[in-house]
UniProtKB/TrEMBL annotation, chain A:
This is Polar amino acid transport system substrate-binding protein. Pfam families: SBP_bac_3 (PF00497). Coiled coil: none annotated. Residues 1-24 form the signal peptide. Residues 39-268 form the Solute-binding protein family 3/N-terminal domain. GO terms for biological process: amino acid transport. Keywords: Signal, Transport. PANTHER family: ABC TRANSPORTER GLUTAMINE-BINDING PROTEIN GLNH, AMINO ACID ABC TRANSPORTER PERMEASE. One of its GO terms (cellular component) is outer membrane-bounded periplasmic space. It comes from Chelatococcus caeni. SUPFAM superfamilies: Periplasmic binding protein-like II. Belongs to the bacterial solute-binding protein 3 family. Gene3D superfamilies: Periplasmic binding protein-like II (3.40.190.10).
UniProtKB/TrEMBL annotation, chain B:
Belongs to the binding-protein-dependent transport system permease family. HisMQ subfamily. The keyword Transferase does not apply. Residues 21-209 form the ABC transmembrane type-1 domain. GO terms for biological process: amino acid transport. Its main location: membrane. This is Polar amino acid transport system permease protein. It holds the Pfam family BPD_transp_1. GO terms for cellular component: ATP-binding cassette (ABC) transporter complex. GO terms for molecular function: transmembrane transporter activity. The chain crosses the membrane at residues 27-51, 63-80, 188-205. Gene3D superfamilies: MetI-like.
Length: 281, 220
């Protein structure tokens, strides 16, 4: 009995020793894997303009794709060294946790629940709901829509929360729900709705596609942050990606970020102020 | 709905759509062929196998047939990677569909073989045919005729089930269509067009089945 106990104690001690020995060696980071592989495996979607979608040439493009390019450029000095894994929105977290992708950039809203499963990078865009009006319509802006009360009709994508979402900005407006994005724009175009409520990025994209026909009502609500996500527990890799994104928004790659922003959202960004870094102002 | 802009877009994406259609056809073909071959083995084991093998196959068919195809697709993509088998989405999808197909074909074949009166097997034995000869010359020709109509049905189901592979990112016809819609915002005409293409594929399978049925029917 005594000898059995001692045997178990020796085993336990050996186990502890071997784990500490393993920990003493620096753990290999995803960063090293990606560098030695020579390309970034990027998880993203293919069906949402202007985030990730295919052009008429069948190639992936969009703001999420450009964020992947920023990271690939930081890794290899070549923004094209990316292997895309197209995935549905449902597959974003499973593909990270099972190691199918190095990183996912797919208009992923940061939430506390998700942050328990994957590690989010710093945000690269702040999404919100906006209102799109016809450029020559009878309402000038958000204030005019709100003043008109119950006489305005808002077209919105069908959703359990659609009604309360619109009423958060326009408490008395009539809400018409439609099944697909093209139909909410059509409702606005045909005059069945006075404004279309949808993601501001979608509005910005639609306006760049149809210049001069529409305008933004100038009010945004329902803020949410979009971040890339990586597997938990690899701080080295997370730091690297954060650095790449951070320098795209504030440093050496700002021109790339700004050109992409202009291309997909039609907005010119002012360069970050020189002097004290914007983060510390 | 004006037709002009749609036809214009359709022309621009013609090769992309064809590629999606081809991927749907190749997924379905691979799944049907592999699933049918595997299914024949399952069916034979279910009918003639030793008791433990029969129980094993019974468990297999009941388990697979009772599982939604989507779950099989996700399982073969995600669960196999946890045991070290890294399949790409296309391979994982074909595997899931083939396994699903095999359970159906196996069960169909079992039913068809068991529907043949025992007397025929006994008569074959009496005239000195071995089991293999009896199967090839007496049982299989009849079983194939029984199985064909339901097999055509299963093949068409496989084509439809291939749409589920879009979830794991296989660029088959449905995902390709969704990609085109996200750029053009023409959801109704492109979904309608994709529906028509699926119909053409399934109608082709149905005609092929009818043709084989005609060729194998016993003239009366």
């Amino acid at each position: 009995m005594f000898s059995q106990c001692r045997f178990a104690a020796v085993l336990a001690a050996a186990a502890i020793l071997s784990t500490t020995a393993a920990e003493a060696q620096p753990a290999k980071s995803k960063l090293d894997d990606v560098l030695s592989r020579g390309r970034l495996v990027l998880g993203t979607g293919s069906t949402n303009a202007p985030w990730h979608f295919k052009g008429a040439d069948g190639k992936l493009q969009g703001f999420d794709i450009d964020m992947g390019r920023v990271i690939a450029k930081a890794l290899f000095g070549d923004p094209e060294k990316i292997e895309f894994v197209t995935q549905s929105s449902d597959a974003r977290i499973p593909n990270i946790t099972t190691g199918k992708v190095d990183i996912t950039c797919q208009f992923m809203t940061v939430t506390g629940e998700r942050a328990q499963q994957v590690a989010f990078t710093i945000p690269y865009y702040r999404e919100g709901v906006g209102l799109m009006l016809k450029a020559n319509g009878s309402y000038a802006d958000y204030a005019a829509l709100k003043a008109a009360g119950s006489s305005v009709t808002i077209s919105v994508l069908q959703n359990v929360y659609a009604e309360s979402m619109v009423h958060a900005a326009l408490p008395q407006a009539k809400v018409d729900q439609y099944e697909s994005v093209d139909l909410i724009y059509q409702a606005l175009e045909s005059g069945r709705a006075d404004a279309a409520a949808t993601d501001q990025s979608s509005i910005a994209w639609f306006m760049t596609q149809n210049p001069g026909r529409y305008k933004d009502a100038g009010y945004g609500w329902n803020p949410q942050s979009y971040s890339c996500a990586v597997a938990r527990g690899d701080q080295d890799w997370l730091n690297f990606v954060n650095t790449a994104l951070h320098e795209a928004m504030t440093g050496v790659e700002f021109d790339f970020y700004a050109a992409s922003f202009k291309k997909w959202f039609g907005v010119d960004l002012a360069p970050p102020q020189i002097g004290i870094p914007v983060e510390f102002k | 709905m004006e037709l002009g802009p749609f036809l214009n877009e359709l022309w621009i994406v013609r090769y992309i759509l064809l590629e999606g259609l081809w991927r749907t056809v190749s997924i379905s073909l691979l799944a049907i062929v592999a699933g049918s071959l595997l299914g024949v083995l399952v069916g034979l084991a279910l009918t003639y196998g030793a008791l433990p093998l029969r129980w094993l196959m019974r468990g297999y068919t009941d388990f697979i047939r009772g599982t939604p195809v989507l779950v099989l697709v996700l399982a073969s993509y995600y669960m196999l990677s946890t045991i070290g088998l890294q399949l790409n989405p296309f391979e994982a999808g074909v595997l899931a569909l083939a396994v699903f197909c095999s359970s159906h074909v196996g069960e169909m074949l079992r039913g068809a073989l068991q529907a043949i009166p025992r007397g025929q097997t006994e008569a074959a034995k009496v005239i000195g045919l071995t089991f293999h000869q009896a199967f090839i010359y007496v049982l299989a020709p009849q079983a194939i005729r029984h199985v064909l109509p339901t097999w055509v049905n299963t093949a068409a189901e496989m084509v439809k089930a291939s749409t589920l592979l879009s979830i794991i990112g296989v660029g088959e016809l449905l995902l390709t269509t969704q990609e085109i819609i996200s750029r053009t915002f023409m959801s109704l005409p492109f979904y309608f067009f994709a529906g028509a293409l699926y119909f053409v594929v399934n109608y082709g399978i149905e005609r092929f089945g009818k043709y084989v049925e005609r060729r194998t029917t016993i003239p009366s």
